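Ticket #4471: structure output looks truncated?

Reporter: J.K.
Steps to reproduce: submitted the chain below (187 residues) through the standard prediction queue, then opened the result file.
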Amino acid sequence: MQMTFTGKGKVGSVSIGGKSFSFKKLQWRTPSEHTINGKRHPLEVQLVHESDAGTGELAIIAILYKIGALDSFYFQLKRELAELAADRCNYGVEDAQSPMGLVHLRSLQKRTGSYFRYMGSLTAPPCTENVYWNVLGKVRQMTKEQLDMLLAPLPPAARQNARPVQPLNGRVVTFYNPPNSTISFPM
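Returned output as attached by the reporter:
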């Protein structure tokens, strides 16, 4: 499942090593495809950014979620997710779509400061390399009801869509933890 941003305006951007990337879409994975200290979480949202230089490079910001308090970002998607869940399309043959209108992304922009970064690949075929992965160091919370609402449009067989955890294969994962950063895992 994904949310794609269309239109003339720029939704957002990130800069990594002097390279600029524009925000294009959100994708959800259940359970999380990344682990911290070996722990997998119920949900990972991936904010996909494409290189402004046209090189095909991607920068993805991954946010991990655990079950807990209400998340304001998912609260605003409630009506559209219910509409998608009611649309009984033939999964795998056709797409169900719902225009979201204005979506406030501010709640996803809560700064944690700390993050993990590594060069990896896409987690779905063709598993293209040269992706700048940035996994936020603070695990966010959402209610079980919000997770169920997010998964409701998908048939049961498609609700677990995460790639299995992969070995590092020589990749170096760097942890950035600026002063006064928030992390939510034991060091």
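Triage note (M.O.): checked the attachment and the full token line is present. Strands lie at 2-4, 13-16, 19-29, 43-51, 58-67, 115-120, 131-136, 140-142, 174-176.
Status: closed, working as intended.
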